[in-house]
Amino acid sequence: MNEAAAAKLRYQQGNEKGVISSCSNGTEHCISQLSKQQAMKLQQFRGALRDVLQPHNDDDDLLRWLRARNFDLKKSEAMFRKNLLWRQEIGADTILENYTDPEVIQKYYTGGSIGFDKTGCPIWYDPIGNIDMQGLLRSAKRSAMVKNKVGMMERMNKLFKECSKKNGKKINQLICIMDLKNLGRKHLWKPGIDVFVEMICMFEDHYPETLKQCFIINAASVFPILFNITKPFLSSETKKKIHILGVNYLLTLLEYIDADQLIAHYGGKLYDENNDPKCSSHICYGGAVPKEYFKTSDKDDIENFTEVTIKRGSSVEISADITVPGSLLSWQFTTANCDINFGIFKKKVYSITKQSEMTVVVPSQRVNSHLVPEDGSILCEEPGIYIFQFDNNYSWLRCKHVFYRITIIKPDIDNHISEDIILD
Fold first, then answer.
1. Closest CA to 152 of 82, 204, 101, 192
2. Is residue 278 classed exposed, middle or buried when 0-12, 13-18 and 19+ CB atoms within 10 A define those classes?
3. Residue 351 has what DSSP assignment?
4. Using one digit for the tens of pLDDT, what is the confidence trace for 391-412?
5. CA-to-CA separations, 391 to 283, 319, 330, in angstroms, rounded
6. Is residue 310 exposed (0-12), middle (13-18) or buried (19+ Cβ within 10 Å)?
7. Please, what is the Cα angle at 129 between 125 and 130, to 5 degrees?
8. CB neighbours of 157 closer than 8 A, spacing ≥ 6?
9. pLDDT for the residue numbered 26
10. Distances from the Cα of 149 to the Cαs of 21, 155, 215, 286, 301, in angstroms?
């Protein structure tokens, strides 16, 4: 069975199970497909929220929250009310009118929407393999990246209403195509991963059941590592909607999207108003963030860092014990006013070892960490003691103040893509 046929079969099976609806009104959360118990819980849910409901909270909207918590009334109500507080705190209702993304976010934060699937749902493209997360976080606050995605979802909600009116049926979900081309170890950076996890949690907690299908193309070798990190934050329903496509991904995409609605860059026939096959006027393709955007360090950047003073003519070594092969070891550090010599070594045995007897992991070199914060990550294939060395032996006049953070992310035991994710 080819990829397209397999995907279509899964789609049909989903319909039979009530996971994906083919109702005449177009919504995947068709009221007529609810069991008697589910229909009763929907009415109970509406009654429990009668003090806060707005006109747009129709049955289809309320079902999103119930499904997100498996029709547990208490959990669904708590989720709904918590979302109302969050929207007020972050200003979601007015973010499109009152907030403008920083220029660096507009130019280099990947993603964009153009076209619709065969049922009229919008398509969101994210060439996330091109994202320079380190450059973005050096140039803008994390909160700015969060607000960008809030704005994106609020724009999608407006588009859902327009699509519903145009098509004469309820549209409240989107198709996502994620392109992982160029994804590499530079993306295994703890602060960047933290932001990605925060986005996932935001989508799950505040925009539940908005994802219709997610197609991942050009999956790189580091994808299983990243997925195993983010998997615990995905609901079981979301996992079922993720499809990892092979080299013939076009066959599968065309099962869901007509060629004239799929951008030419991915094999369709859709061009933007500039006759661009990538539709760059609608989709940001990221790229390396120029250093001119980098901001200077401030107290917020090092709030959770450890401070160490390295005396003149001396060095400091910090140990990281890796017990599980395949662990991801990441670091960040900055210095106050001066440079520092930095390197990473691995002990061959668990004992006092001279540097000359250690394995060089990252060669020592002087870095201008007082100008631009240093960071990096390595995949530790072998367990052992990894030594971070901050060396100030070359300086006889100045002591150095280093602010650092070292993190270890252990892999899942199996260290492979979950069976919950559909491999096409």
1. 101
2. middle
3. S
4. 999 988 889 999 999 999 887 6
5. 45, 14, 19
6. buried
7. 90
8. none
9. 42
10. 28, 10, 19, 15, 21
H and E: helices and strands count for the chain: 12, 15
Q: In this structure, is the dihedral angle defined by the CA atoms of residues 26, 30, 32 and 33, taken in order, positive or negative?
A: positive
Whole-angstrom distance, CA of residue 402 vs CA of residue 247: 46
Q: What is the pLDDT of residue 296?
A: 64
Q: How far apart are CA 306 and CA 195, in angstroms?
A: 21
Query: pLDDT tens digit string along 171-216?
Result: 999 999 999 999 998 898 878 888 999 999 999 999 999 999 999 9
* CA distances from residue 112 to 109, 229, 284, 392, 409 in whole angstroms, order as listed: 10, 25, 6, 47, 31
First to last CA, the chain: 10
How far, in Å, CA of 252 to CA of 267, rounded?
11
Domains of the chain: 102-292 (3.40.525.10)
Question: Among positive and negative, which fits the CA dihedral 150, 156, 159, 165?
Answer: negative
Residues of the chain with pLDDT under 70: 1-32, 296-302, 348-356, 412-424
Decide: 179 and 128 in contact? Cβ < 8 Å.
Answer: yes
Helices (H), 36-141: 36-48, 59-68, 73-90, 95-98, 103-108, 133-139
pTM for this prediction: 0.76
